[in-house]
Design goal:
Structural class: mainly alpha
Shape: globular
Distance between the termini: 42 Å
Number of strands: 0
Largest sheet: none
């Protein structure tokens, strides 16, 4: 059986993992800013790593199945740049307790979701900037 036959399941897994990753980061980040210790415990850090690794694997699988190229498909290139920014900002938010980094990481996350839904680098802003 060809892998493409599993496309609906892989896409569903990708969407579920995107949601789980974003919700977990939002909760951990908010709690970290509130000076809670639990967000940085080993089990939660490991859970984030597992979710994000599975998310990346599902994303790369979809990328390969659909023959996408980040230089040709600008929306995908935009998502990859935003992903790097999201990880960097999220790291600062969690490790250094910086509210500006937390807000910026959440904005990157939401923009990535918007770009993915619109299949356009501007995401939801496409309606404004055409």
């Amino acid at each position: 059986m060809a892998l493409i036959e599993y496309y609906p399941q892989i896409k569903l897994a990708h969407l579920a993992l995107v949601t789980a990753s974003g919700v977990l980061f939002a909760c951990r980040g908010a709690a970290t800013l509130a000076r809670q210790r639990w967000p940085m415990t080993a089990p939660l850090r490991l859970t984030s790593i597992v979710i994000d690794t599975l998310l990346l694997a599902a994303g790369v699988t979809l990328w390969a199945l659909l023959s996408l190229q980040p230089l040709r498909d600008a929306w995908l290139g935009t998502k990859l740049v935003l992903l790097v920014l999201y990880v960097m900002l999220g790291t600062v938010a969690l490790k250094r307790r910086r509210a500006w980094a937390y807000a910026a990481a959440l904005a990157c996350y939401l923009w990535m979701v918007s770009v993915a839904l619109a299949h356009h680098p501007l995401g939801a802003l496409r309606a404004v900037f055409g």
